[in-house]
Give the backbone structure.
Amino acid sequence: MIARLIALFSAISPMLVHAQAPESVMVMEAYSGKILIAANSSVRRPVASLAILATAVVAVDWASATDSDISKLVITAPQTVALVGGLNPMNLQPGDTLTLRDALYSALLGSDSLAALTIADHIGRQILAKRGKAGDPVAAFVDEMNKLASLVGMTETKFTNPHGLERPKAKGYSTAADMARLSVFAMRRNAINFIVRQKVRHIEITGTKGKQGFLIHNPNELLGEEGILGIKTGATAAAGPCLATCMDRAPLVRARPDGSKGATPRRLIVVVLNSPDRFGRTRSLLQQGWSIYDAWLADNAPVKDAGREILSVPAANP
């Protein structure tokens, strides 16, 4: 009997280990790149709909490059949205139309997988057409997401779709450190910065029943707390509860040696992956992070090993 129990435990223990895998954490100051707290931050793992941050960056940058107004550009849900699964807060159906802006609201606030796919399908088609190529528009868009990851320095990341849902033969992954890099990069865009701080947003789609309005609710419990700008929530069975957070404090004004004054902007990025209490954990990490950062700054921000102490994010847009 004991031997049987040992054999049974040996067979199921890998699944238990996976289910109980420790959380990954990265806390950094966005302007300096200073790493403040890190735990399992380079471990590759699924990140659920945090991947939609990359979808949003590609979409917003494409709109800027093509001089497209996201509030006026109308996109159409492709037939393939019927196969996606995941959250669908708008009850989006093939053939429904909406603006790129409203699709971004639903994707970023509501983790709307179908909205993310619709964004990818539209922009992917435009990319292929401009290059004079045929092919899968969503695959073309995901290729841009991975180019973005490479440019941002996300060396341990692979995107396989625009929504972050796990697929048996196409499993994407990232790390807490890489998602922190992406969070810094994304929050430099005014459109994304504005969208992710909204608690609720009214959006509209047009379908067979005409124009319909929907309220998209942001499940981020930290919104409304002082300094919190939001970013992205996410959760799947494989990824566990995930949260990326951005918090600002007023610039720190200090006297320079020449007697003039300079202002140091302050912004923390916190990423937690597979954290059972993602909101409570993030609150605690923000408090700890600010304490560590303020002490570091008061000590004139020493850096002995930039490779270990600084999480670099390129200043220029791709």
Notes: The longest helix spans residues 278-298.
